[in-house]
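Example S7 (structure tokens).
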């Protein structure tokens, strides 16, 4: 390494092998155990597009058959690996004041056979598209953040057709569940596993759901959940819309506080809090955020088993953006959205391994920040930079000409068969 450089590739490789050893017991046979290691390395690579074909070529396999078998037919339980990812994240990013952040993301898809796909709104595209939606749970602490669970949203257009569900690998009795219900399920799994996070954050989809809020209160779990301006809250003077209460606040009710550091510095807003009337135990409040430049307002329903200061509620509200950072990094660095699979089992396996790959980057980043805060003229190592260095210094992809030419031959043969099949169907339809 360059003189004075703190990066230690051997330590990163040791950390990666330890993580692979951690999940090794979830694979009964040695072949999938070896191949899953190669797949995760491919997810961590600098490939511009990550799928079974590109990763198989990158790691040196002659065809994508083995990778496709690992995702589709090999014997292993993605949920057990997910539990290992959760334990790994909590162990290495542990924070007594961690926040569980819940949110959904969409992947634009073509066709109608990919599990869970339908025309629906997705924030990824910013409009209604043919897409697949998944809800994720992110553990966010001072040392970093990573996803610890995932649930695929199965629309009613699917659950009302058992044959369609069966063809996609879903059970015959698959029942419709809303996104807040999926969030409740994941938070329950996290807490039932013995993990602790005193706070939950989420956007209006989750804040506007009374069943989710009640479930969190029953478990004694605090929350700061966004709600719409039209959301009605109970006060000692009756029920009022959130925006109506904001208009009644005097100037002295607002405080300038940071919602956390962003890429361009601290994110300062004006904040105010109103105590709410509630028959049950605990502290119930309406938190209001005001943009200091535009005056735009945002609203949050808050609960805590015991009263907490405004700064704590602001910190939790600001943590919600960690899930957006996970989506960006998970998709950009670990191929979270690049799965080209149709069945539910294959989807579960791909996104779980992508979560594991991102979690590795997040843990290495936290470890590097703790070991080497870095000189003043350098920002601390980011997940992007760690991925780049890990691929360059640790992973040794195969790049010989014979291997590349063999894959070119395989792709062209596969494409020729697909083209011939397409022309045959076209001719039959025109006959």
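Recovered sequence:
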């Amino acid at each position: 390494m360059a003189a004075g450089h703190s990066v230690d590739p051997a330590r990163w490789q040791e950390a990666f092998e330890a993580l692979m050893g951690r999940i090794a017991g979830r694979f009964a046979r040695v072949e999938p155990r070896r191949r899953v290691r190669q797949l995760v390395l491919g997810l961590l690579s600098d490939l511009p597009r990550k799928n079974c074909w590109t990763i198989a070529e990158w790691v040196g396999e002659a065809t994508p058959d083995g990778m496709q078998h690992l995702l589709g037919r090999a014997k292993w339980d993605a949920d057990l690996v997910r539990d290992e990812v959760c334990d790994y994240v909590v162990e290495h990013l542990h924070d007594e004041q961690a926040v569980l952040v819940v949110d959904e993301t969409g992947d634009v898809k073509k066709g109608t056979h990919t599990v869970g796909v339908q025309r629906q709104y997705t924030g990824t595209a910013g409009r209604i598209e043919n897409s697949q939606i998944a809800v994720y749970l992110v553990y966010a602490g001072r040392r970093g953040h990573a996803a610890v669970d995932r649930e695929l949203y199965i629309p009613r257009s699917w659950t009302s057709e058992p044959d369609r569900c069966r063809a996609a690998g879903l059970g015959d009795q698959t029942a419709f569940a809303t996104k807040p219900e999926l969030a409740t399920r994941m938070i329950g799994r996290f807490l039932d596993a013995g993990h602790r996070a005193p706070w939950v954050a989420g956007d209006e989809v989750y804040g506007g759901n009374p069943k989710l809020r009640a479930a969190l209160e029953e478990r004694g779990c605090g929350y700061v959940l966004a709600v719409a301006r039209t959301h009605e809250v109970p006060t000692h003077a009756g029920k009022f819309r959130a925006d109506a209460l904001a208009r009644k606040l005097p100037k002295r009710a607002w405080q300038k506080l940071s919602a956390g550091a962003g890429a361009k510095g601290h994110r300062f807003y004006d904040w105010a809090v109103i105590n709410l009337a509630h028959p049950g135990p605990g502290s119930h409040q309406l938190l209001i955020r005001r943009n200091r430049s535009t005056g735009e307002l945002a609203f949050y329903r808050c609960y805590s088993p015991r009263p907490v200061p405004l700064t704590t509620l602001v910190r939790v509200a600001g943590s919600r953006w960690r899930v957006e950072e996970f989506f960006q990094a998970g998709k950009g660095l670990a191929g979270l959205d690049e799965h080209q699979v149709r069945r539910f089992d294959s989807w579960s396996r791909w996104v779980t391994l992508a979560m594991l790959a991102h979690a590795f980057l997040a843990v290495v980043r936290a470890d590097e920040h703790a070991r080497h805060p870095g000189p003043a003229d350098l920002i601390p190592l980011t997940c992007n930079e760690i991925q780049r260095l890990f691929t360059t210094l640790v992973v040794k992809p195969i790049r010989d000409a014979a291997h590349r030419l063999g894959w070119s031959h395989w792709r062209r043969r596969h494409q020729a068969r697909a083209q011939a099949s397409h022309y045959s169907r076209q001719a039959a339809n025109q006959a």
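Notes on this example. The longest helix spans residues 401-430.
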